[in-house]
Amino acid sequence: MASLVALPLTACGNETGGGPSEAVTHDPSTSQDPADAAPQERIQGYFDAFDTAAAEGWLETSYNTEYLTPELAEQADTVDAQNRDSGATFEGERELSEWTVREQDEATVVVEFCQDTSNQRVMRDGHDQGEAEGRDVGRFTLTRDSTDEPWLIAAKEFHPEGTTCADHFGD
After folding, report:
1. Is the entire prediction scored with pTM above 0.85?
2. How far apart are CA 149 and CA 8, in angstroms?
């Protein structure tokens, strides 16, 4: 398996196709109660909130405590503050695909997915600074203490640059 690198902002290709036979792919459903939300919904919700915060200059970052474990939220708050202080914002859409559950039990789930931010642009003082990141494979670990609590993202990892979704998921 390729080594993983933790990065705050990255992306993955939007290739299609099946994954390895031992993996389980889930389609998201929409839940009202965060405790009822599937891990994929929690990851999607996190990225939606992140993208909204990025588009608005990271003025509101409470989403970190809603979706991340306390330790990871603290780290993300620091990065968000640096982004806010730099004047950077993001414009454009992120696409997520190839949702695959690699491991799951009552308290932990490991989900891999493709992320494509090639349509997102980094803006600074109204000037285009280029593509946000591009495409790559993400691997998030989510945890919870009980089924009455929502899944929280405990680890965000991304495969090294150049690992394509097609290669990783066997397309």
Report:
1. no
2. 25
